[in-house]
Amino acid sequence: MFVARSIAADHKDLIHDVSFDFHGRRMATCSSDQSVKVWDKSESGDWHCTASWKTHSGSVWRVTWAHPEFGQVLASCSFDRTAAVWEEIVGESNDKLRGQSHWVKRTTLVDSRTSVTDVKFAPKHMGLMLATCSADGIVRIYEAPDVMNLSQWSLQHEISCKLSCSCISWNPSSSRAHSPMIAVGSDDSSPNAMAKVQIFEYNENTRKYAKAETLMTVTDPVHDIAFAPNLGRSFHILAVATKDVRIFTLKPVRKELTSSGGPTKFEIHIVAQFDNHNSQVWRVSWNITGTVLASSGDDGCVRLWKANYMDNWKCTGILKGNGSPVSGNSQQGNSTPSLGSNIPNLQNSLNGSSSGRKHS
Amino acid sequence: MSGTKPDILWAPHQVDRFVVCDSELSLYHVESTVNSELKAGSLRLSEDSAATLLSINSDTPYMKCVAWYLNYDPECLLAVGQANGRVVLTSLGQDHNSKFKDLIGKEFVPKHARQCNTLAWNPLDSNWLAAGLDKHRADFSVLIWDICSKYTPDIVPMEKVRLSAGETETSLLVTKPLYELGQNDACLSLCWLPRDQKLLLAGMHRNLAIFDLRNTSQKMFVNTKAVQGVTVDPYFHDRVASFYEGQVAIWDLRKFEKPVLTLTEQPKPLTKVAWCPTRTGLLATLTRDSNIIRLYDMQHTPTPIGDETEPTIIERSVQPCDNYIASFAWHPTSQNRMIVVTPNRTMSDFTVFERISLAWSPITSLMWACGRHLYECAEEENDNSLEKDIATKMRLRALSRYGLDTEQVWRNYILAGNEDPQLKSLWYTLHFMKQYTEDMDQKSPGNKGSLVYAGIKSIVKSSLGMVESSRHNWSGLDKQADIQNLNEERILALQLCGWIKKGTDVDVGPFLNSLVQEGEWERAAAVALFNLDIRRAIQILNEGASSEKGDLNLNVVAMALSGYTDEKNSLWREMCSTLRLQLNNPYLCVMFAFLTSETGSYDGVLYENRVAVRDRVAFACKFLSDAQLNRYIEKLTNEMKEAGNLEGILLTGLTKDGVDLMESYVDRTGDVQTASYCMLQGSPLDVLKDERVQYWIENYRNLLDAWRFWHKRAEFDIHRSKLDPSSKPLAQVDLNQTKKWI
Could you tell me which residue ranges the MIOS-like alpha-solenoid domain spans (chain B) (predicted)? Predict the structure, then answer.
């Protein structure tokens, strides 16, 4: 059972992104009001805003946390064509007394000539690395060679995607069997039939990122993309928010079978495709085990998806964007606001509207 | 609005009211129906709102356009532009406040009659009303009226008014406008610019013009076809939208030479374009004969400096109803709320949703942002655990020290929540394996220990070709069956299956008793039967039937059993072979399958998937020849590996096969916790060194870190170092973690 409650966010304009730190004890939000806010969770479970500052001179699209191993570090990206790295300064007693924390800008990444649409830290095992993507279709990968000096970032890679980029996701797998990998989505809406999801893989020999896969079946604008936490699985799961929710699995074909040195080959399957949001799907997010996917869409609802033991994905919960329950007659047979309960499950299987289609 | 198509307007201040206008004006009141039933006579607008008709005004025929007075008082004062160019002030269902009584019914008359296209109240001086008219020769087309101005006889001769209008209340006619603009032109749309009371933007015949009332001889203008529906962005006063046919043009008044932007052209002509009053940069558009409101989300603040980059625009569409939409109106204060009206005057009230962004926290709560608001959705603790996700299960299991009981290994199943049959099988298997390893080590150190953790598959293989079958007597019956002589390996296998206890005794009695105690009568009966003790089977079934939780039908089954006959063509056999398929309980089913089977062909038992693997394997050990047994075990092992079924660990043991099986289990469930603890239970070092095992362990430790279970992780590391001395459990991450905290 899930119960939704509202938190006074006090942003002066639309909130574009919410992001948790590694432990889920801290949260960052960013907004069109050009600010980022940091929230800390109290012992009682309430969220308190402990910092709020102007970060950019345009809408802030995304905010993301680095692994705590690198300190308390945030990155943000904006319409103002920049991305920025922020670090919390500990020890200013005045602020501490007021329950406020202090954040300073460590660097501004100014390489993009257009709006920077997404920013993501690489998985911890790769070191302190950061990827951005921008409306001009370029993914940039930066590295801080000295993790103690966050003001030094060097641009390591520029990957041209040919299409305006809207979102990126690192493959979180830290298995030695998997090379570093990043998926890029495009929201290009011009009426071409080009594939909107590309996957790039790092090649140890050439020391470059090369295209490993293109999801040819995704031709509509993509608004969000997310690799599931790998959690020891032998394959990767990728969720795509486009005109519907799609879940792909990418199973690496064993290296021995492919010629060495080239990019990894994958068996790609689409394991679920849901149009319950009726129209555009805006965001997708995986839980910590990559077993439950949350999505939001134009119907103003948040939906939860989960696979049963047969790998059939089903809707297991639905809530309206304002936290109120979805009443019976309005939403395709889902009637309870209780996420994670099996009642909507049953109804879905009855009307058959949301069971996953499986084909390769 | 010309007769057929209704228009709709929200009241600017009394925000629960709106007016629908076609040939008459109808005032409605909106009510929430969340906590109440739909009242008689009210119209449903949405799931949670309904409208009641308050009053109708049909005093003003030939309406062309309507504008609601912007001041708070009087509430329901409306200006109506008519087909003859007159503008009439009228009111709806109000107690006629004496102060404004004079205003109601007042008419503003242009010199020459022609259609009034548009009306706009000045947002700063509430008495100023601008009217845009069609062209009439060289006459002015934009007239600005002061609604408080009195009739002035010296300008308009009394008799002329009498003649032309024939009105009784001549004092209510005003013919002298405050300003006259747009000579020799037509005006199609108007809006006041909020930055100055005296600036008026007008869509004229072939251009957009800004009139400055401080100097009416001058105007700023730009030639364009997009002259309809001019409207100022309420959040950026320099941003203006206008349209022509299917195309919307967005203008920046600071560089008024050309549109800063034109939106994708629609196939049908547009009828209305409106900025959302409660949110920046959201423009709603409607085309003719369409049931869709198209929205353009302009997600950035326009900058005055020459910006060559295209702004980010997200195009969306909403379909509030199935019918064509005649018109729509944004709610003045409710966020993103809109009401639409169809040509047959049905109405629908709905909200345009913001793009929701969302994120999961590691402790299974979901946070999302909708508009300017944040919502948190947390899991309630007291939930039925079967429905819980593996993330929650693993967290709870970590708290209950799951996996850490290395003495009573089977107890880990209880620690895991006592609900998952596969985990039960796994931990019992590991428990038995541990017992016999220790047993074996005592007897002959370094001998068979490794074989035990290797699972039944290897055990059985090691005894190939050493077993012969012999006839055994059914106890209590004068009948015989072929049973394999049990060699050491088969006895070990049976022990791992849990059928017999350690030691040389091959008695299943204790096992049967424990099953009976747990109320598993059907299973106990089947095991008894497979040990050729049909009397005990019947006895167990009777016991089950008479017990509290048991099923009375078990007596019937016992009765059927007691009629068992060896004869091939007996009615008993015939009935049992057909009816057994209708039995729901798999153990009852396999009992009859066994009794009716031909000698040496036990597929009905061996491939009954609903029967526990350990029982089927034990059965196979008793009845199959070496070759058959090997084939069967091989086949079953592959099946289990494919399915990632933990019951199969009994067969694979903690070997590479076991890792393969566990890999499919992890692929299927994500349960790295069980995978880690299982492999740390007794795997040989080379298995522990398998990259996959190391990766599960790494992932599980990472989960413990994310949950801030520092003690649990320390315990896990200690547990791990006991079995795998090569692991370096302590300190490495703690130092890193604290690096920047100190």
Answer: 394-623
Q: How many CB atoms lie within 10 A of CB B619?
A: 25
The pLDDT value given to residue B162: 45
* Longest CA pairwise span in chain A (Å): 62
**What value of ipTM does the predicted structure carry?**
0.89
Amino acid at B467: V
Contact call for residues A115 and A61 (beta carbons, < 8 A)? yes
Rounded average pLDDT over B310-330: 84
CB A289 within 8 A of CB B390: yes
Give the angle subtended at the CA of B437 by the CAs of B434 and B440, to the nearest 5°: 150
Is the minimum CB–CB distance between A126 and chain B shorter than 8 Å? no
Cα separation, B296 vs B276, whole angstroms:
10
Global pTM reads: 0.83
Segments making up each domain of chain B, as ranges? 453-464+484-629
Between CA B447 and CA B455 the distance in angstroms is 15
Residue B549 is classified by DSSP as S
Taking chain A (360 residues) in runs of 10, the rounded mean pLDDT of each run is 78 93 96 94 91 93 96 95 93 67 94 94 95 95 94 96 94 90 90 87 92 92 95 94 95 67 84 87 95 91 87 88 63 36 32 37
Taking 90 as the threshold, does the pLDDT of residue B451 lie above it?
Answer: no
Q: Kind of pairing, strands B173-174 and B107-108?
A: parallel
| A27 interfacial to chain B (CB closer than 8 Å) | yes
Rounded Cα–Cα distance for residues B577 and B485 (Å): 28
Per-residue pLDDT tens over the stretch B209-230? 999 999 888 888 999 999 999 9
pLDDT at B4 over 70: no
Interface of A with B in 100-119 (CB under 8 A): 113-115
B387 interfacial to chain A (CB closer than 8 Å): yes
Chain centre distance of CA A111 = 22
Q: Determine the Cα–Cα distance for residues B311 and A172; give it in Å rounded to an integer.
A: 32
Q: Under an 8 A CB cutoff, do A309 and B708 touch?
A: no
* Helix ranges, B387-518 (H): 390-399, 411-415, 421-443, 449-453, 455-461, 488-497, 509-517
Q: What is the pLDDT of residue B302?
A: 58
| pLDDT score for A329 | 38
Q: Which two tokens stand for residue B424?
A: 């039960």
CB B90 within 8 A of CB B80: yes
Name the average pLDDT for chain B.
84
Closest-CA residue of B relative to A331 is B47
CB atoms within 10 A of CB B736: 15
The pLDDT score that the predictor gives to residue B161 is 44
∠ CA(B266), CA(B222), CA(B193), 5° rounding? Answer: 85
Q: Say what the pLDDT of residue A74 is.
A: 97
Contact between B282 and B275 under an 8 Å Cβ cutoff? The reply is yes
How crowded is residue B742: how many other Cβ atoms within 10 Å of its Cβ?
Answer: 5
B473 conformational bin, left if phi > 0, alpha if psi -120 to 50, beta if neither: beta
Q: Which of B278, B350, B353, B671 to mutate to test the interface with A (most CBs of A within 10 A)?
A: B353
* pLDDT band (50, 70, 90) for residue B131: very high
Contact (CB, 8 A) for B33 and B352 = no
Q: How many CB pairs under 8 A join A and B?
A: 246
Give dist(CA A76, CA A235) in Å, integer: 30
CA-to-CA distance for B422 and B413, rounded, in angstroms? 9
Given a cut of 80, whether residue B549 has pLDDT beyond it is no
Q: How far apart are CA B161 and CA A111, in angstroms?
A: 72
- Which residues sit opposite B482 in a β-bridge? B471
Asked whether the beta carbons of B179 and B143 are under 8 A apart, the reply is yes
The answer to whether A285 contacts B360, with C-beta atoms less than 8 Å apart, is yes
* Residue B430, helix vs strand vs coil: helix
Please provide residue B370's backbone torsions phi and psi, each rounded to the nearest 5 degrees. -125, 110
